[in-house]
Backbone:
């Protein structure tokens, strides 16, 4: 039976996905990546979960790929491993549920990529982020995709070329991290944010998340053309009608449980 190194539990409307292999610094092995995809899909399919927290046990968020696994692999195995890693990152991105990374320690290489791929990051003061692949002759090309989309290309390239860890406070300053809090407040702060997000219409959040990422790579005119259509679709949805009526009537909205499409 395969060892469970990634776990999922639902706490009401918040799902918690946990990297649970602290003895191996929560490496993103083939097994871990496969389980990560499965646990995220479980959160999506739960029905009650409206926001996901991605956390890990131990003092390291994730040390990235299992280097021993990469060295021992055949060319075909390496190709499938990196494809699986990309699939895991795209699962985070394409999930209709917002995903908050709760980073308590260092996140390196693919571990940094995973944190940066999440929609939001709350980090402990002790946390840090690094893309140190260049030190071992393996440039962090796929992590570069994630970090270059949340900070300036120049700052991302500096991380990639120097391999220097970026402390949490600096990561917050350059836009990689949303908030930095004392370690003892990390779980409570992240859960409070997740509950705040979960209080919104899940249909609207899912539509908005997809629209946000779809428009980012477009020029301004294309982005407006796309988001105009998203606004039209959103405005006619039952949750939007209910939300606007509730606002006008000064009451709490009652969100629908299903897709809220006509």
Residues:
């Amino acid at each position: 039976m395969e060892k469970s190194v990634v776990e999922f539990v639902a706490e009401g409307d918040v799902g918690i996905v946990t990297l649970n292999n602290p003895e191996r610094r929560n490496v993103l092995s083939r097994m871990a990546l496969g389980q990560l995809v499965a646990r995220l899909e479980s959160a999506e399919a739960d029905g009650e979960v409206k926001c996901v927290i991605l956390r890990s046990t131990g003092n390291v968020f994730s040390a990235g790929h299992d280097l021993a696994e990469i060295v021992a692999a055949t060319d075909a195995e390496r190709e499938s491993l990196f494809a699986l890693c990309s699939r895991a990152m795209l699962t985070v991105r394409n999930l209709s549920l917002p995903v908050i990374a709760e980073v308590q320690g260092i996140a390196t290489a693919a571990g940094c990529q995973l944190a940066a791929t999440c929609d939001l990051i709350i980090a402990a003061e002790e946390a840090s982020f690094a893309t140190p692949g260049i030190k071992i002759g393996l440039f962090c090309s796929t992590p570069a995709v994630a970090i270059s989309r949340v900070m300036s290309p120049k700052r991302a390239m500096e991380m990639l070329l120097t391999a220097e860890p970026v402390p949490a406070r600096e990561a917050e300053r350059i836009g990689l991290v949303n908030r930095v809090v004392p370690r003892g407040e990390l779980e409570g702060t992240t859960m409070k944010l997740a509950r705040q997000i979960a209080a919104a219409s899940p249909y609207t959040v899912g539509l908005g998340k997809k629209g946000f990422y779809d428009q980012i790579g477009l020029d301004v005119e294309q982005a407006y053309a796309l988001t105009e259509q998203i606004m039209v679709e959103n405005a006619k949805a039952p949750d939007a009608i209910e939300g606007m009526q509730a606002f006008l009537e000064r009451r709490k909205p009652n969100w629908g449980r299903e897709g809220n499409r006509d």
